[in-house]
Design goal:
The chain is an alpha/beta fold and 431 residues long. The protein is 42% helix and 15% strand. It has 14 helices and 16 strands. The strands form four sheets. Strands 3, 4, 5, 6, 7, 8, 11, 13 and 14 form a nine-stranded parallel β-sheet that branches. Helix 4 crosses helix 14, helix 6 crosses helix 7 and helix 9 packs across helix 10. 48% of the residues are buried.
């Protein structure tokens, strides 16, 4: 894997010198704006946020800052939306939505999404394209999260046993990034060995957690099966009992992983299904999470935390779930909910509606209802339909932030309206 150019561009003396953020001089581990010499003004220049722990800053979080944010979510009864992205447009929509809702967000890549980000024309032997695509996406997130002035956890989604070389490549990239920046490139990775025997699942996860903890990466592991189909993985025919984790299994996992580090979350199964299905076809049982927390607290005795929520849970298959199930699960320790199907639809719906609105202007390069010689370039400019997808996704994510009680978290107030007045050649949209 040839990453030398990217890392050389971002290394150097600036990585560890004091940088100005707001009115204070702070020593930062890494700052993309400072590293590459791009402007960092307004919210980008904030040292921290009014309503969050002082370690939480604009940009990608890792290590203690990430843990402080996740613990703040659990203590204050909200969960952070985690959105699968496959393009820079999707990432930008997530960042725009986060700032519009005055909230943190989790941007995540699947292996297939990473490969697409790298380009489907690139060979993916040994997961070359998936590794390069995820790294490329990581640098985009790191650059733009600061500019939008929001805290971001940069995560990778499901990684089965056969996909471990993909995550190995990403951890190696983070280890190299850490050498010059004092923090990993990513924030966290998911290892999904739920199809393996639980003892093997736990042992492999412990090995990865030991390696990851050294540079401040968090591990998300899965227990039980998430049903449905996503990113080429089809679990729609799995036995129903596989969709529900047992308290004893969650306790076993918790005890073994905390021997290594506290930087882990558990995606326990409580009937979760990828995709959207007709009402009644998915039976979520959030009480499973509550029962597991109680079981573990009983085992911990006086060492149990005051909030009685020792485990930080992840909600997979969140698209299409009822608000009542979502908010019950938050009360039982869910601090992250994955969203993919709903945002895939919202992006497509935005493009679909744009096409319907301007259909007669999109059938040829020249000729529309205004006249046979009228040009249509400003309508078929790709920026137009892509922006329509972004706007519709920002709107859909507002609902997700509300469902997750994840609004007005940062304390920044309403975002200023973007100034985009220089015309199409300088960034403005034609229509």
């Amino acid at each position: 894997m040839r990453l030398s150019v990217a890392f050389l561009l971002l290394s150097g003396a600036q990585a560890f010198i004091p940088a100005f953020r707001g009115h204070a001089v702070v020593t930062q581990l890494s700052n993309m704006a400072g590293d590459v010499g791009i402007p960092c003004e307004d919210e980008c220049a904030l040292e921290s946020f009014p309503n969050l722990p002082p370690s939480v800053h604009p940009g990608v979080l890792s290590g203690q800052a990430m843990m402080d944010l996740l613990n703040h979510a659990k203590e204050n009864g909200y969960a952070i939306p985690a959105v699968n992205c496959v393009s820079s447009s999707g990432i930008n929509a997530c960042l725009e939505a986060a700032r519009a809702n005055d909230a943190p967000i989790i941007v995540q890549f699947s292996s297939g999404g990473s490969q697409f980000y790298g380009g489907k024309g690139l060979d993916n032997n040994n997961y070359r394209a998936a590794i390069a695509g995820a790294v490329s996406g990581a640098f985009h997130v790191r650059t733009m999260a600061e500019q939008y002035g929001v805290p971001v956890i940069l995560h990778t989604d499901h990684c089965s046993k056969q996909l471990l070389p993909w995550v190995d490549g990403l951890i190696a990239a983070s280890e190299r990034y850490f050498e010059t920046h004092g923090e990993p490139l990513f924030s966290s990775h998911m290892i999904d060995l739920s199809e393996e025997p639980i003892e093997e699942n736990i042992e492999i996860c412990k090995d990865y957690l030991s390696r990851m903890d050294k540079i401040g990466l968090l591990l998300e592991m899965e227990l039980g099966i998430t049903g449905g189909e996503e990113d080429g993985v089809d679990n729609s025919d799995r036995p129903v009992e596989d969709l529900y984790s047992k308290p004893e299994e969650i306790h076993q996992t918790f005890e073994e992983l905390r021997k290594v580090s506290d930087k882990f979350t558990v995606a326990a199964a409580f009937g979760n299904v990828h995709g959207v299905y007709s009402p009644g076809n998915v039976k979520l049982e959030p009480e499973i999470l509550n029962n597991a927390q109680a079981y573990i607290c009983d085992k911990l005795g006086d060492a149990a935390p005051a909030n009685k929520l020792p485990v930080s849970f992840v909600f997979h298959g969140g698209s299409g779930s009822s608000v009542s199930d979502i908010q019950r699960s938050i009360g039982y320790g869910v601090i992250k909910m994955n969203i993919d199907t709903d945002t895939q639809w919202s992006f497509w719906e935005g493009i679909k509606n744009f096409e319907a609105k301007y259909h007669d202007y999109l059938q040829s390069q020249i000729g529309n209802p205004e006249g046979p010689d009228k040009p249509n370039k400003k309508y078929y400019d790709p920026r137009e339909c892509l922006r329509a997808g972004e706007v519709n996704t920002v709107k859909r994510l507002e609902q997700s932030f509300a469902d997750l009680k994840c609004q007005n978290i940062l304390g920044l107030g309403k975002a200023s309206e973007a100034k985009n007045v220089l015309g199409p050649r300088r960034g403005g949209l034609p229509v």
